[in-house]
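Friendly challenge for the regulars: who can give me the structure tokens for this chain first? No prize, just bragging rights.
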Amino acid sequence: MNQSHDGEHESARSKRILIVEDDPILGAILLEALQDEAAYEASHVLSGEMAQHILQTDIPALVLLDYHLPGISGLELTDWLRSREERGHIPVLLMSADVLPPEASGKKHLKTLQKPFELEALLQSIAELLVSGANADPGAAKALSHNHGAQ
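First reply, four minutes later:
Bragging rights claimed.
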């Protein structure tokens, strides 16, 4: 019984998503959609600086990131994240209503999503990135394979 509870807790932790979106309404919608539709454990912050503060001590499974943020842009936050050895593997889904600059393409574990988007497209992109992130992080891959065995 205790082992099953630990497996469920580990599964929820392996699907933690940090949403970085400066529009509080869109951030709340994304938070609710991820928690309700896909049962991810998600949190929302309004700026790149707030995300940096959280990412100093927390390692989510994925960062859902707006490109246009006050202060630090989404690409700048991605570069900062990639420069951290223990966090460089975290996949990033970069959302933007604008055409992204060329430097956005080709970044490892970075996928872009054009706003507005359908919920299904968002969930599909997140699922793909979680798999690629797990493959890049041996600890996460071990946790995910352990979780699949527990189901």
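Confidence is low (pLDDT under 50) at residues 1-13, 138-151. The CA atoms of residues 2 and 139 lie 22 Å apart. Your move, everyone else.
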